[in-house]
Amino acid sequence: MKRILLLLILLLTLAVTISAVFITQRSTPMPVPAFLEQFLNDPYDCSPLGLYKDPDGLHYYCTPVDMYVFARTGADGMHFGVIPDTFGETVFAVTPDAFGEQTVYPVAENLTDFLALVCALGDSTAVEEAPRMTREKFEAWQAECAASEWLTTDSGKQYLADREAAAAHLHEACNLPEIADPYGYIRVISDAFDPTVLHYPDEYYE
């Protein structure tokens, strides 16, 4: 019994330690960049596209210290942000669970291109994953997702309808461009980026 109690205490301590290292709250709120205001103030729900608005959202160990987080995918801590003072309107994807790999990539030159990419690919997670996959692997993954049997169920059909409606709303509300090759667009901008210019919290270097 004593061993079980000690094990539970150890697991609880470990969980608290991990959460402290991986999730941090900005001590001073960061003002909303002007170019994000229209999107963040729009009450429309973008979650069918796997895009959850999160103004000045939580930072993780690998979130650049000067980044304004504005959205998340809703899974595994993946989030999107901008670093206005250094990179203007460029949108970055942050992947906290990419241990031992590059965790931050630029994925769009500006918000409208980012939203156009999300709409074209059907989910913000695809935008986040593209820099870390070959085209062949990415397209195979996309095809596998599209072939899911769940999409033929009533719930799946409703999801597709909601996703299409969300994309249509964003296109109209934000006057989004059409991007013919979303994967190619993302790789051009992400492959040319030098991640060593980013500044991370102390936890990142430990």
Give an overview of the whole structure.
The chain has nine helices and seven strands, in the order αβαββββαββαααααα. By secondary structure, the chain is an alpha+beta fold. It has a five-stranded antiparallel sheet. A two-stranded antiparallel sheet has the order 1-3. A hairpin with a 6-residue loop joins strand 4 and strand 5. Helix 4 runs antiparallel to helix 7. The longest helix is centred in the N-terminal third of the chain and has 21 residues, at 2-22. The protein is globular. The relative contact order is 0.14. The model is unreliable at 1-21 (pLDDT under 50).
In short:
The chain contains nine helices and seven strands; from the N terminus they run αβαββββαββαααααα. It has helices at 2-22, 37-41, 84-87, 111-121, 124-129, 135-146, 154-174, 182-191, 202-205; strands at residues 23-24, 52-53, 59-60, 68-72, 79-82, 91-94, 104-108.
The description of the largest β-sheet is: 5 strands, antiparallel
Helix content: 40-55%
Low-confidence stretches: 1-21
Give helix and strand order, one letter per element, not per position: HEHEEEEHEEHHHHHH
- Structural class by SSE content: alpha+beta
Alpha-carbon distance between the two ends: 36 Å
Task: Tell me the total number of β-strands.
Answer: 7
Gyration radius, in Å: 19 Å
Multimeric status of the protein: single chain
Largest beta sheet: strand ordering: 2-4-5-6-7
Work out the strand percent: 5-15%
Q: What global shape is seen? A: globular
Q: What is the mean pLDDT?
A: 87
| Number of contiguous helices | 9
